[in-house]
Structure formats: C-alpha cells, structure tokens
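User: Earlier you gave me the apo prediction for this protein. Now I'd like the version with pyridoxal-5'-phosphate bound, so I can compare the two side by side. Same sequence as before, with the ligand SMILES added.
Assistant: Got it. Here's the input I'm using:
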Amino acid sequence: MTPATDASPLMATYPPPPVTFVRGRGSYLWDDAGRRYLDMLSGLAVTSLGHAHPAVTEAVATQAATLVHVSNLFGTDVGPEVARTLDRLVGDGEPVGGQVFFCNSGAEANECAIKLARRFGGRGRHVVVSAYGGFHGRTLATLHATGQPDKHEVYQPLPEGFRHVPWHDVDALAAAMDPSVTAVLLEPVQGEGGVNPANAAYFAGVRRLCDERGALLMVDEVQTGLGRTGRWFGFQHFDVRPDVVTVAKALGNGVPIGACWARADVAGVFQPGDHATTFGGQPLATAAARAVLQVMQDEDVPARAARAGERFAAGLGALPGVVDVRGLGLLLGVELDGHDARQVAAALLDDGLVVNAVTASALRLAPSLLVSDDEVDRAVAMIAAALARASDRDAPGVAP
Ligand SMILES: Cc1ncc(COP(=O)(O)O)c(C=O)c1O
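And here is the structure of the complex with pyridoxal-5'-phosphate:
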C-alpha cells in the first residue's frame, strides 16, 4: 500500500507542529527558515541549562567516543557517581544514604516508584494515592496515577491500585488512606495540571499522615526537580523529607534519562530481578547528567532560578491582561484575563517567543535556569505586546 505523499510518517499523538526547529543555543532556537526565537519553555522544562550548553555537549561527545552502552549486566563508572550526587542534592548538600534506579523518562521513574511502593507494602497493601490535577506520565500505571480522568477513558481498563483525592486537601487524603494504601505520590507544584503550587502546611499534613499510617511519601520532581523552583527540589520549600523522589526532564538537559531515588531501607526491598531496564544508567546518558549536575552546582542554579523567577513574576504580574502569576522559581503559570491562552501562545510564537498554554486560560513559562535579566525583560515585553493586541482585538465594538 502506498501512503499518501502528504501523510506524516509520525503517529498523530500531537497536533501538526507549527514550527520546525533545527538549532539552539542558550535561550534561543532557530527554525528551518533561519528565524530566531526566544525560548521560555525549554522543551517542557527539560533544557534547564539552555540549548547546546558547551560543558554538556563536550561531555556527551567525549562519552560517545569512549563508551555508550554495555547494559546493566556490567558495571560502569559514571552512574554511581551521578547517583551519589543526586543523593546529596536530595539532602540539600548532605548525603542521605539513599539509592537510585536510573531509567529513561519521567514516566519510567514513576513506574519504578510505584513498583517499589508495591514491593514495600507487600500483598494487600498496594494502593497509590495521588491528587486530581496531578500528572505522572503516560504508561498505563502512571496514567492511572495521573489525576486527570478524561485522559483515562479511552484506555480502560487501567491497572488497578490507584486512588485520587482533591489537591491540597489533607482531610480528603486522611479519608482515602485505608490499610490498603502503600504510598502517596504528589508533585510539589502540579506542572501539567496548570502550575499549581502546594504549600508547607499541606506537605506537612501529608507527611504526618504517611508516618501515622505507614505509607511512603513519594514526590514527583520530574518537572520541578534540579533547581527549577529555586531549591534543588520542590519539596525542600516545604521542610519535609520524602521517602522516594523521582526526577527526569532536566537531568540530562535533553539527553533522555530519569531516576528514582529512595531512602535506603525502602530501596532495599528491591532484589535482583525485581525491576530492570536495558538503557537506564548507561554511560552516555549518565555522562550527560554528570556534566549537567556539575554545571548546576557551579552556577548555583537554584539561587539563579529564585532570583530570575522573582524578576519574571514581578514583570508579568504588572501587565494589563494578567490576573495572576503562580508557581515557584522559574516554573510559572500566567493566568490571563479572559484571553484564550492557546491563541496568545500561537501569537507569541509568530512574534518569536516560545511558551505554551498549560490550560485554556494560562501560559506556562519554564525558561533556562541560566536565563539572563535581559532575556526575562524581553519576554515580558513580548507578552505585554501580545496581550495588548489581544485586548484591542477582543475590545467591544471591534469587528472580528
Ligand atoms: C510531574 C511529571 N511527572 C511525570 C512526567 C512524565 O515524564 P515523561 O514525559 O518523561 O515520561 C511529567 C511530564 O511532563 C511530569 O511533568
């Protein structure tokens, strides 16, 4: 059968792309016509050091020429080093003595957490509770953990053992935590759900409930982790210690890698053969992660993100057409005053600014954590101009 010549060779899981990018550097991208764009999305919070960071490029090129992959049947030297660094960052500078399983994505990091929780709970204690509005991935189990029922319907039946509670409601969680519950899985800021931050009182309440009922507190830091919120991890804003932490996105600055960290006694329930991955922890991806974590520590990216985030939020919050700016550090949701966020995001792309509409009424900004003040100010000015045009267009009496 000959396909129609204009048919895409890719499955239609995303709408047709509006732009084709061919090159990036720092906070900038270039399309196939040579046009430059200011990137305030970082490939969905992934390129946290900007595009083509020289230290990461060098590390990947050197490792690619040395050893890319041998499988987990054999030892390699980079993965354990990255695991130790992650453990130290989970402890905010002090090693915690936890252990890491490397994988290739955020969903896989959460799959590992869910399996770990089931193994930890044992038979009859296997339920993972998560929050409505949360997002944890698109594999069948992580899709069920994702608290967005509209995404579940076409894939029913989903794996059992998941329960959802209203976000930011400790009483609802208490009511849901019967003896079948082995873990609670939450984001510190619901990213895909609209950039909705938690607060310290909620996380303290969740920690207390988990302690009382013998359940694990598992924090999904796939989008928030590694400096983005102004701390190494989002949970560090809330002064709680989780039992399991998952990361991915920023860890490889675009090279696919995920990781599930767990407290030593929790990690210790896995025996050889309980969980596995072909690619996870391979030298190429972990060499990228080693370089990323080194640059992040050298540049103190949490402090940079906190500072730049304040500047960004202040600039955006003062704009006509913006009713609220929420989030932490450089993960920001910009609630618009009645404008369609998808239309505004499309207009901004035409203007040369990359953002996305995280809900129908809010833009998401997740720039490089090395973003400059000038770049922040430019982005604010471009958003101001786009909102002013949208207001003129939507003003009463103006013909569509
Ligand atoms: C909080 C969170 N968890 C998990 C995932 C899934 O990660 P991946 O797309 O790498 O599987 C995402 C992706 O956006 C996420 O934001």
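For your comparison, keep in mind: The two ends are 45 Å apart (CA to CA).
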